[in-house]
Amino acid sequence: MLDIKYIREFPDHVRERLLLKGENTAIVELLEMDVKRRALIDETDQLKARRNAISRDIAQLAKSGQDASSLKEESRSIGDRIVSGDEELRVIETRLKDILARLPNLPHESVPVGQSAADNVVCRESGESARFDFTPRDHLLLAESLKILDFPGGTKITGSGFPIYRGPGATFERALINFMLDTHRSHGKYSEISTPFVVNRASLFGTGQLPKFEEDLYHCEVDDLFLIPTAEVPITNYHRDELLAESDLPIYYCGYSACFRREAGSYGKETRGFLRVHQFDKVELVKFVLPESSYEELELLVNDAASILEAFNLRYRVVSLCTGDLSFGAAKCYDLEVWAPVEQKWLEVSSCSNFEAFQARRANIRFRRKDSGKPEFVHTLNGSGLATSRLLVALLESNQNDDGTVTVPPPLRKYTGFSLITPDGVQ
User: pLDDT tens for residues 235-259?
Assistant: First the structure.
């Protein structure tokens, strides 16, 4: 959430930055409502002061036996105006909070200006694509011949977009999760955390999914709980409404979760296999840091996520999202995209974002410096480290052999217990 005081002080700057994210109307109403609110507060305070003065005058007249009926009538009239003003103020403040809750974060000055993904900037590319001396199969053909994934089975049980991992496929995916968690813990910074897969409204408000994106979430109406779209939500809200000490920061967490998104993949029309699913698994990285270090921490976060791709010798690139392609809450974001050699396309496997104080203000996550008594909002960051589904596409396609088998990457073998997936099983 943006700071209303900052908006009030720098309205032109805020309007300009919001316009870069495609928001050009709400700020006008916000400022108008803010002016009305402050004017109404001043008017109501003056009325309350006048009513208090009248009360004193009435008491004095009563002591001296004089008539105070006109003052009593004025007091009743002022009371009615105060009640009306308080109700109007309540309506205005409710509307103000709603507008603020729906305003996106301001893009950082270093974010490239653009309107869509076509304007994103490739920062760097690493690794080489797999090369074949045979006709390679895509991940769907491989999954079918190896009997490791079952999309029709998931559709029968639940609906489209809910895949089933079978046999070595299930082991392979679980190995990915364990490898990624162990890798991030081995950095010596991230503490592993396991959180619920359902959250309340306050949690989703804190990270910015509510109220604007409620229709994209799976809602359990009876309990008014939501399936999480990402572990970012419960992990970030772990410190909601807390006041941390400066010495507590930075805090790094890594955690696994299943992720549920009704409109997952709405950024593109591709629906084949794992390229668009409504449930997938992901390891998440979350940071709580000092404001002055958050952009350095963002670069380190990208490197930590990229270390997984480097461990598998996959070709990948880091893309800086332009202003028009940034998410609702991000001030700056890098996407990590892995190359799928048979699909012949880049697949997003991680988004690493700096939210600055946007989420912390919504979730009331603050810290106090040792030399200052005034609490400040922490800066929050998160990134996938990584999502397994699209990573699995790249791994299957890149590690296939001419006989239809798939070689398990060396880093995963101690987790799987096998090094080769064949149509008849494993070796």
Answer: 999 999 999 999 999 999 999 999 9
Q: Does the predicted model carry a pTM greater than 0.90?
A: yes
**Residue 394 CA to its chain's centroid (Å):** 25
The answer on 219 and 306 residing in a single domain is yes
Instruction: Please give the residue range of the domain that contains residue 23.
Output: 4-102
Residue 35 tokens, joined: 């002016």
Are 197 and 233 spatial neighbours (Cβ–Cβ below 8 Å)? no
* CA-closest candidate to residue 252, choices 305, 208, 312: 305
Residue 285 dihedral angles phi and psi, to the nearest 5°? -115, 130
Instruction: Please give the backbone phi and psi of residue 326, each rounded to the nearest 5 degrees, phi first.
Output: -65, 150
User: What type of residue is 130?
Assistant: A
Q: Is residue 39 part of a domain?
A: yes
Shared domain check, 392 and 312: yes
Residues 176 and 324 grouped into a single domain: yes
Same domain assignment for residues 307 and 193: yes
Q: Pull the structure tokens for residue 170.
A: 């299930």
Q: Which residues of 280-291 are buried (b: 16+ CB within 10 A; e: fewer)?
A: bbbbbbbbbbee
